[in-house]
């Protein structure tokens, strides 16, 4: 991709100091005059910084998001080359009273992002780095580093020393470390070590006023950064715990079932992983409902994964109950940790990672176990709405049953992430080609109905939603926990650290 240098940008922006209006018609310039005159900022940025203006290929590419529903709208993109560039950009935006928003993997899809209707995108991609500490116990990860880069860098470094290293990242390769991490962050290794946020040791942050600070567990802000972090600053680097790998091998078995097996499959999942027996730390179960036109043109299938660490093939103790139900197909594969994303169809090249101009709202709910009656009701509604070639046929219902020991081993009051006791992260993802607000409403209604069915089946008083998957109409209690002390503490911290609400686009506290 052709990248503009700061010199070129300075030259291009020269119109602002010379004759107004000159060469604006080329469409290659940033918004003319007024608060978007970037010259004052350009002077302060490092040579590695980039500024992309509307009408350029760079701008288009750098502003594209995974979900086009209620997207933030930006007038100019700053790509910081250094941490100071981030700080200068925030100060500049504040002086000009312009909203700003950090972009990382751009897979954040909560509809509150749409409240940003103009302003500066701060694209974090150049702050991508992984530096392993000499003692091999932590790594300093740049604020714009993708999950896959973290995993691959640790893996490669380990190969050289003969000791393979890992840390908890999102399972999906195309999200950043911090996008999920600031909201808690689920991943394959959470059964051992806890959430992504639980690995954090210290953070470099640019605060709402553009000042730079380093915080750790001694800061009053620390608690909030682990679960509600998007509300408080731009993290330019995080020091995170890393571990020597215990087992190199991982294995998966993929079982595909027809919709007639909903009750049997989720009863078995309850019996073997959730109620009668606890899912062991080295086992993960996941399922998707989605259309597989080869398997069944009329109804979504159930794709059920049983994943196990430390083996070349998944132990039949975990798979036999599902084989007994009568899958349409079953496939067993062995490999290593780095194969997991590919196996579960969330690698960088897989469909869920593509930015394809689709609307992708999700409607998440945390559950303790499956209510088989509710699963059936939800399946029937999902199947009728997403069948065959219908508008919502690309939708996926996701059921993520990670192991929980590491997450539940940490004091629930110690982080803003509030839902450590939930075993299952569940969400319908309603995917469609956007058309009009009527269609958006239909999609939202379907998503809400599906979630409502599971909520009614949960027998709980309150609905609990993972903010990083959330739609945007959830309440603060549904995002950050029902306990009053949590809400009070978050509000007090927001008043203290971001009183003007500069960081209030992603699941905002205020
Ligand atoms: C295909 C797919 C797979 C997913 N897989 C997982 C998964 O395995 N585990 C999981 O827990 N979640 C997962 N998620 C949900 C994910 O946590 C959220 O979508 C997350 O917001 C994505 O982060 P991002 O960097 O891609 O998005 P972005 O939209 O770039 O960032 C999300 C929000 O975080 C803020 N932000 C990003 N970087 C920083 C920073 N350095 N400092 C401060 N704020 C920052 C942004 O301003 C934005 O508001 C997945 C989502 C998708 C679409
Ligand atoms: C699980 O426990 C329930 C209730 O005790 C029992 O009815 C059921 O048979 C058990 N299932 C298995 C597979 O052991
Ligand atoms: C399961 O869901 C059904 C349907 O919503 C509900 O009637 C039932 O009470 C739920 N069961 C439990 C144990 O909560
Ligand atoms: C914080 C937030 O976005 N709250 C919203 C929750 O949903 C209700 C109902 O849609 C809105 O009124 C709130 O603004």
TrEMBL record:
<dbReference type="GO" id="GO:0016491">
    <property type="term" value="F:oxidoreductase activity"/>
</dbReference>
<feature type="domain" description="FAD-binding PCMH-type">
    <location>
        <begin position="69"/>
        <end position="245"/>
    </location>
</feature>
<comment type="similarity">
    <text>Belongs to the oxygen-dependent FAD-linked oxidoreductase family.</text>
</comment>
<keyword id="KW-0732">Signal</keyword>
<dbReference type="InterPro" id="IPR016166">
    <property type="entry name" value="FAD-bd_PCMH"/>
</dbReference>
<dbReference type="InterPro" id="IPR006094">
    <property type="entry name" value="Oxid_FAD_bind_N"/>
</dbReference>
<dbReference type="InterPro" id="IPR036318">
    <property type="entry name" value="FAD-bd_PCMH-like_sf"/>
</dbReference>
<protein>
    <recommendedName>
        <fullName>FAD-binding PCMH-type domain-containing protein</fullName>
    </recommendedName>
</protein>
<keyword id="KW-0560">Oxidoreductase</keyword>
<dbReference type="InterPro" id="IPR016169">
    <property type="entry name" value="FAD-bd_PCMH_sub2"/>
</dbReference>
<keyword id="KW-0274">FAD</keyword>
<dbReference type="Pfam" id="PF08031">
    <property type="entry name" value="BBE"/>
</dbReference>
<keyword id="KW-0285">Flavoprotein</keyword>
<dbReference type="InterPro" id="IPR012951">
    <property type="entry name" value="BBE"/>
</dbReference>
<dbReference type="InterPro" id="IPR050416">
    <property type="entry name" value="FAD-linked_Oxidoreductase"/>
</dbReference>
<feature type="signal peptide">
    <location>
        <begin position="1"/>
        <end position="21"/>
    </location>
</feature>
<dbReference type="Pfam" id="PF01565">
    <property type="entry name" value="FAD_binding_4"/>
</dbReference>
<dbReference type="GO" id="GO:0071949">
    <property type="term" value="F:FAD binding"/>
</dbReference>
